[in-house]
Amino acid sequence: MIDPFAPTKPSATTCTPPIDLAAAPTLWAAPLAYEPGGLISLGFASAVPAYDAIKAGTAAAAVLPTASPALVLWAHAYGSRPGDALALTIDAPDGPWFAIDVVLDKAQAQYFRAAGRKSRAPLPPGTWRGTVILLRDGQEIDRRETQITVQ
């Protein structure tokens, strides 16, 4: 038996005939890349969603009415470090509508941030787009986009 995570380490069960563990093929063709942090999911809602709903995958609205009281873009991410930043941008069907940069102050295994605007008038109908960019030391380490129909 060969442990796929330690192919060069002999196991209690030996193979007959003995094999050269250093020459044995590995489980993966290429090493898996390490991602030190990134975005898990994002979506739109009419208010800041509960973290439990985000983790369960039920927070994103599929469609919102033009009479929605607000439009909020949320992002669920992992591996934050102090000083990381999330850039959240919402574009209306006719152009930019909201943008904010949120600086993260502590390391967290998983976290979420949400931002948006209250609606004082009916939201314009059409396709709205949200972009979230995760920055570390000024460098983009992840980017995701989403969209929602307002009708």
List the keywords.
151 residues; Immunoglobulin-like; 3-stranded antiparallel sheet; 1 helix
What does this structure look like?
The chain is mainly beta and about 150 residues long. The chain has one domain (about 40-150): Immunoglobulin-like (Sandwich). About 5% of the residues lie in helices and about 50% in strands. The protein contains one helix and eight strands. The strands form two sheets. The protein has a five-stranded mixed beta sheet with strand order 2-8-7-4-5, with no helix packed on it. It has a three-stranded antiparallel beta sheet with strand order 1-3-6. A hairpin with a 2-residue loop joins β7 and β8 (about 140-150). The longest helix is centred in the middle third of the chain and has 6 residues, at about 50-55. The radius of gyration is 22 Å and the shape is elongated. The mean pLDDT is about 90.
Compose a concise summary of this entry.
With 151 residues, the protein is mainly β. The chain has one helix spanning 51-56; strands at residues 38-45, 63-64, 70-80, 85-92, 95-103, 108-118, 126-136, 139-150.
- The largest sheet has its strands arranged as 2-8-7-4-5
Individual helix count: 1
The helix content, as a percent range, equals under 10%
Which shape, going by the Cα principal axes?
elongated
DSSP strand tally:
8
Domain unit count: 1
In the predicted model, the low-confidence regions spanning at least 5 consecutive residues are none
Structural class by secondary-structure content: mainly beta
Rg (C-alpha, Å): 22 Å
Q: Indicate the CATH architecture.
A: Sandwich
| Percentage beta strand | over 45%
CATH class descriptor name? Mainly Beta
